[in-house]
């Protein structure tokens, strides 16, 4: 026999709970779970998370099973925090359909409508109460999850989906995931990469193959197996009110460039007397660190010194490892003069013999204390016509190696016209112990570009949007904006050394859909008006202040209008139902929990009164095969009204019979339509 307590929670208690959800308050960082009738009787049996890491975001399917240890049907209420910047994008509930377990997907509705329907489906209205679940907004990165009813001693399983953005950092996608779960029952996490070639790391090591406890904060990384040197993406989401949410992101690969293979390299050291011996040694130290990057690249290297004349330190071009040995042993005698022009000219002549297809590199160290007759303008053409990338570097003695661009130097144009740079640097003397490895890393920037300098994004407004002065390889930068116009295309610009780069991106529909959702995990959402929030949330399929997810078993649809309150509480097990179940033939023995006759009486009479039947009586015969209405016959002894009758029939043809309760192969139901 149905238990009357199943649907007879007081209307005021449930309505109040739906109307006023308190601010999320986690004890010791845990989610809150309670029962509406008996707060201590409802507990969580298990909590499983399947996280699929896509490139640039992750999707979490969070499955939770609750248990009711009480003596009455109860409602379970979760107040749960989402992962940082996460948004809820789906809900489903596990129920029964024709004797089998089945998942029922939720529908995104306007928040008030979802709340009203949830209230109706719990048995407090005319709808057949069919285990609805409601996923509603609480605040950024926090939601309320409700499900009703949970029978005494029974379990209920729900699953909701959370999307969260990843951050590009160190040439990989990164998500910081906090511990999740209720107290004494932390979540069990299972990880997978959407692209099997990508590598997953948890706190720097491969994750377990199965589930593991999410009982502490984790750094989860996705290392892509292949990625463009510079990637740019643009999402543009119209708000429906003439404004656009724009999200753009640029990411640099772990290596934006490589040391060229089979290069011809000329290295020149300033041996003038204006340099102290330890400054000359600092040049040698920097040059050796630079050449280390060409050891395994089949490079050919010439090293020379210059004062007022040239001093060949290698016999022409030799392999890089041999050049390193010769430079380490070479006596560096200083002399008068510092003819940088002579060194540039000599390097140009040496490089003219470079075979076609072999890159050319020129690195000349100098203190720039040159004769007054040496003008940078006189050597711009020589450097440009050499076909080499030309770097000029001034090195001072310093315990720790360092290097920086000097784009305001008088000789900067000479280098820039070749794609090279003028550098100022510090280096220890060659004899300083333990400095070689650090210097190799520092002076790698002379062998290949390690950053995009002076980056900017064009297309977001009248002026380019500036980024940090340098964007190092492996780094990313992203911004969300609310603009008064639509943005369809942007361009990322910058310099690799002094070679301009341009990368374009057009707005992407799928990315726009994703950021329509992810916006509700950011403070930008508060810049939207209510109608804009609704428009954007519906596109993103996301829980928001204006939208909620409602899931209930199939075969039940909320009525087109909430029935009058004076119909009472029609549902399973008392509270207004007659449990007569009268039909014209027996069919199969019905042992379900729905008072079917009362349910039909309530729906049909609500339609009769709404369509203008007040003051008149009629008889309705509804023929059903299982849960399908196949025929309707309406008899009106008095007061015939074609418009009214058509209205009633139209409503009833749209009625869905609960599939688990209307189980006869064929049955006629007789429904009296009353005048009031």
TrEMBL record:
InterPro entries the record matches: VIT, VWF_A, vWFA_dom_sf
Swiss-Prot/TrEMBL keywords: Signal
One Pfam family named in its UniProt record: VWA_2
Signal peptide boundaries: 1-27
Domain of life (superkingdom): Bacteria
Residue ranges constituting the VIT domain according to the UniProt record: 28-164
Keyword Signal among UniProt keywords: yes
Protein name, entry field: VIT domain-containing protein
Provenance organism: Enhygromyxa salina
